Amino acid sequence: MIASWWAGLDTAMKILWGITFAASLIFIVQTIMTFIGADADADFSADVDTSADGSDLSNIDGGSNLYTFRNFVNFFLGFGWTSVLLYDSVRPRILLFIIAVIVGVALVAAVMWLFKWLAGMQQSGTIDIYKSAVGCNGSVYLTIPASRSGEGKVQISINGAVREYNAMTDGDSIKNGTTIKVVEVIDNHTLLVEELNSYIV
Question: What is the pTM of this model?
Fold first, then answer.
């Protein structure tokens, strides 16, 4: 039945369904990994995590960088589902794609606003980062440039909760998925970290 349904689709619809299925699957995997505290972008980002100046600003602490893998997935999730659901009812096609783009951008904006709101809740006093973060272990979420030349992002566990922060390092760059240890708190949004292996003699 599925094969006959797929065979009956035109080429454009097959492409749209392919985008929609892929974005939906990745979104589900990212959501599950986020809830279990795993590094949701480490295996997918392929270094699209840095902005033009080498820094990443796209974390929940009020970041503004759109160019993260998570945001691309959110965009195509909104774009894809809008396109396939309205494909037969909206003409001309250019109007359909304009609507789909608007929905995709709106979904990205909504998710970024949600993470920013959660960051505000986090910084409202539930965790004193200066007292709690130093010594905590975690993993690199977005690549950290070498010698404090820019910011990456890490996920660390504080008091049993997984938190995301900007991160810098004094040493070599630290790649996605690397285990790190927090050595200093630079400010409310930024940590100084080192690769955990550097502590092993």
Answer: 0.48
> Hey, CA dihedral for 15, 19, 20, 21, is it positive or negative?
positive
Residues facing 152 on adjacent strands: 167
pLDDT tens string 99-122: 999 999 999 999 888 877 776 665
Q: Do 6 and 81 share a domain, yes or no?
A: yes
For residue 9, give the DSSP letter: S
- DSSP label at residue 144: B
Largest distance between two CA atoms of the chain: 66
> Rg of the chain's alpha carbons, rounded to an integer?
20
Owning domain of residue 84: 2-126
Task: Name the helix (H) or strand (E) containing 132.
Answer: helix 129-132
CB atoms within 10 A of CB 177: 15
- Pull the structure tokens for residue 149: 């030349």
What's the number of domains the chain is made of?
A: 2
